[in-house]
Amino acid sequence: MADGLSGDLVDHVALVTGGGKGIGRATALRMVRAGASVGVVDKDGDAAEAVAREITRLGGKALAVACDVARGQDVEQAVKCVVSSFGRLDVLHSNAGIQRYGTIVETTEELWDEVMSVNLKSAFLMARACIPHMVSSGGGAVVFTASVQAFATQRGVAAYAASKGGLVALTRALAIDHAQEGIRVNAVCPGSVDTPMLQEAARLLARRGVGDSPAEPEARQLIEGFGRMHPLGRVALPEEVAEVVLFLVSSRASFITGVTVPIDGGLLATLGVALPQ
Ligand SMILES: NC(=O)c1ccc[n+]([C@@H]2O[C@H](COP(=O)([O-])OP(=O)(O)OC[C@H]3O[C@@H](n4cnc5c(N)ncnc54)[C@H](O)[C@@H]3O)[C@@H](O)[C@H]2O)c1
């Protein structure tokens, strides 16, 4: 914890959704190392508890909160818990999300609503609950986890892509509405990141190839294949996303608001059309 004492977020309180796994877990740990106290909010209460214990073992301060970010009452309660435990709120990383598949024709109304609620409505609910506390703290910073899928997309992820596009538009709207209150709002747009979400997507694809066996080696090969589609030749680590989130919420990014930052190994820069050799 030595670097925590002189980090970017000393005396700051942060709330990270989806903090139990993947990108959210990495961000929660990174923010603690930068000096913050962190509310680790996740639908999976056990995963949130495990991350909070990890943080406590490192000498940091964390509170695990079980919360479904798609539900207004849960969100209000979670924000209240974090503020009453730590006394203030400066940073929100609204990150929890789910991946579901299908073209629009294959997408049921229930699936559309589920994806929109967890990926987009949650950002509205969390920002609405957190911003008044940030105003009381004299300002704050919000980061949403969108995706490259907001800008360029693959087949069969219509609802997911629409939810991430919505987050990018919401980022700009909130940035403009709350700039005068000293609140900056930005989004990160990861390419493929090696998290339980990506691992599950690879397992799903691998099972299609080999039936119902666990297909772990095939899934790992598929992840390596996703990596080769990125110009840098690999998928990202969650810690590489966390580093950018930390920068965006820190005073080092004090004049940055309303932007979306790709963290995609060059994926959005590529046309995907090979020249003849
Ligand atoms: N992994 C990738 O390749 C990738 C790429 C681009 C964007 N993203 C986005 O990054 C974010 C985090 O993804 P990840 O890969 O770390 O996912 P993950 O599945 O590994 O972890 C997500 C966490 O969010 C929690 N969660 C899910 N639904 C929730 C809900 N309703 N309420 C509260 N918590 C909930 C899960 O329990 C889990 O702990 C998501 O918004 C995802 O869309 C991921």
Q: How would you characterize the overall build of this protein?
A:
- Helices cover 47% and strands 14% of the residues.
- A seven-stranded parallel sheet has the order 3-2-1-4-5-6-7, sandwiched between helices.
- Strand 4, helix 4 (109-136) and strand 5 (140-145) form a beta-alpha-beta unit.
- Helix 1 (22-33) crosses helix 8 (238-249) and helix 4 packs parallel to helix 5 (158-178).
- It has two domains: 2-191 and 237-262, NAD(P)-binding Rossmann-like Domain (Rossmann fold); 192-235, no CATH class.
- The protein is an alpha/beta fold and 277 residues long.
- The structure holds nicotinamide-adenine-dinucleotide.
- Residues 17-18, 20-24, 42-44, 47, 67-70, 95-98, 118, 145, 147, 190, 192-193, 195-198 line the site of nicotinamide-adenine-dinucleotide.
Brief sketch in words of this structure:
47% of the residues lie in helices and 14% in strands.
Q: If classified by CATH, what would the architecture of the largest domain be?
A: 3-Layer(aba) Sandwich
Bound molecules: nicotinamide-adenine-dinucleotide
**CATH topology description of the largest domain:** Rossmann fold
Contiguous low-pLDDT stretches (5 residues minimum) are 1-5
* Widest sheet: strand ordering: 3-2-1-4-5-6-7
The secondary structure category is alpha/beta
Global Rg: 18 Å
- What string, H for helix and E for strand, traces the elements in order? EHEHEHEHEHEHHHE
CATH evolutionary superfamily of the largest domain: NAD(P)-binding Rossmann-like Domain
N/C terminus separation: 51 Å
Text of the CATH class of the largest domain: Alpha Beta
Percent range for β-strand residues: 5-15%
Tally of distinct domains? 2
